[in-house]
Model the fold of this input.
Amino acid sequence: MDLPVSVGYKSLQKQTPKVNVYYPFVIGLANHQAELKINSTIVSTLNKTMIELGYHDSNLQEMVGEFEIKTNERNIFSLTLTVYSFTGGAHGMTIVKSLSFDVTTGKQYELKDLFKPDSDYVTALSSIIQQKIKDWEIQLLGEFTKIRPDQDFYLADHSLVIYFQLYEITPYVWGFPYFPIPILDIQDIIQPNGPLEKLLPF
Done:
């Protein structure tokens, strides 16, 4: 059974300061413990992000949060949570957090879980991204050498999408640099029976 899971949403809204944050939750999973695990991880990740962006800060003027479901098939559930806050200054700040789960167990995947234990996935992915930075003529804040072993990612459209936060490698005007990498291009290093293999195009 690997049909899409049912997803609902909740919202946190306040007038002063203006807060309008939407977040998802999964419903009706066969494994109730997995459902609880996924939903509590979503809430705790959102809470940490909101606190990081000044939710309890007396200068907070506005906070907006939304989500996007990136993959919901073959027992893989991958999403992004985007939170924007304005506490004064020239512009606000935004953070994008992503979460990817196995809906049968509730396991949250880290980047390392997607690859064979002996594969040097950091070097392999960094090399692909380095080429894309060059091809797309992306302006960097400094020299790009490699991704973090726990770099932000999500799964979408038969691709692994690696991305960077604002200011992580580029100036603010570039926004969030996203690098989609087709799973077929890294097929030789992916974990057998892992999430990437499950999402390979038939």
Summary: Helices lie at 32-52, 121-135, 195-198. The longest helix spans residues 32-52.
